[in-house]
Each structure stands twice: as C-alpha cells, then as structure tokens.
UniProtKB/TrEMBL annotation:
Residues 12-103 form the Rhodanese domain. One of its GO terms (molecular function) is transferase activity. Pfam families: Rhodanese. This is Sulfurtransferase. Keywords: Transferase. InterPro entries: GlpE_sulfurtransferase, Rhodanese-like_dom, Rhodanese-like_dom_sf. It comes from the Bacteria.
Amino acid sequence: MSDFAQVQVTDLADDAQILDIREQDEWDRGHAPGAVHIPMSELPARVDELAPFLDRDEPLVVTCRSGGRVSRTLPWLEQQGYEVANLDGGMRAWHAAGKQMETADGSAPQVP
C-alpha cells in the first residue's frame, strides 16, 4: 500500500469525512461521527454514493479496522477516478487516540 498516501489520525478532525468500509456490526460498535459507511463488499454496487468526493481538493481517506481491507480497496477506488489515502492504523488507531466516536446503541465505542 506504499503507493498511497497515509493520513495520520492526529491530522484529522473528529468529524472528518472518511469512508469506513468495515462490516455493519463493526460500524455499529463504533465509528467516526462524520464517516460515510459502505462495507467493502458493497462498494462496487454503491460507488456512486461517493460522487461528492470526486470534486474535492483533498483525497478521500479510507479506513477499516487496521488496514487490510483498505489495501485491497484503494487500488480499485483509484481506478474509479478517486484520489484516495489510507487512515494509518485504521479505526484501531482512531479509537486508541481517543478520537470522538459514535455507536448504534449509545454504548461505549469498541474496535475489536
């Protein structure tokens, strides 16, 4: 994944718009407040939902739990015309940094 920019958690606002490609149960347990959620498996069918990100001056920051899924997703998104970057350390790093998170049921956020 070295071909793609790495964005540090500390460089993003708590409400930054990032693309979270984790599964629904992971999202429900804790996600960044401003994140857009499209599970990796649904991206090909739902990529049009990302159209507002095409005209932005900064890359679309993509995250999963720790980076594995992002490494498979960034090349595909780039082929679709998106400027993309990886959230270094994924949601584990976001949570560890004490960044703001929301959950589906209001419980304490978790990133298992």
